[in-house]
Write a structure and sequence with these properties.
The chain is α+β, with helices and mostly antiparallel strands. It has one domain. Helix content is 37%, strand content 15%.
């Protein structure tokens, strides 16, 4: 007579405990979606800035002021946007007007020596954009923000950099 053998209850419990321990230690590494979501949101802000810059530059070309500074494009949806070389200037009002990033969700500040998260882009020609409630980091490894550096010459696009290592 052939004897059927299976796993004992003790063996099954040991396997379940081992799988539980593996799940507790490995799952957080694979399921950290909050950092990925913040990084994707910052990339979305970069896309909004690039799109708004292209729209404003196109309107500036139509108005014939693409090489001018501090000129708002009249009679357009971006009439409140100050220009530098046809692109939005690095000031909070112009970027909010061009991108429609609301103050309830996004902090914007002109980068200065006192809040130096621009990592090489510090000065009055750059704006730091970060989610509300995020502390501006002083190192790139801890940062979670976007830096907009305005155009530096005719036909030169603004530089938009995402720093998401600390998200």
């Amino acid at each position: 007579m052939k004897r059927n053998q299976g796993f004992t209850l003790i063996e099954l419990i040991i396997v379940i405990v081992i799988l539980g321990i593996l799940a507790v230690t490995a799952a957080p590494r694979f399921l950290d979606f909050s950092g990925d979501a913040r990084t994707s949101t910052l990339n979305g802000v970069r896309g909004a800035l690039e799109s708004a810059g292209a729209l404003v530059y196109g309107r500036a070309i139509i108005a014939g002021v693409q090489n001018d500074d501090a000129v708002a494009v009249a009679d357009s949806p971006v009439a409140a946007v100050a220009l530098v070389n046809g692109y939005p200037a690095a000031d909070v009002a112009s970027l909010r007007g061009a991108t429609e990033l609301v103050a309830a969700e996004w902090d914007m500040a002109v980068s200065t020596a006192n809040n130096a998260p621009g990592f090489g882009a510090v000065g009055t020609t750059s704006v730091v954009i970060s989610p509300v409630g995020t502390n501006l980091a002083t190192t790139e490894a801890d940062s979670c923000h976007v830096v907009y550096v305005q155009s530096t010459g005719d036909g030169i696009k603004p530089i938009i950099t995402v720093y998401a290592d600390g998200c």
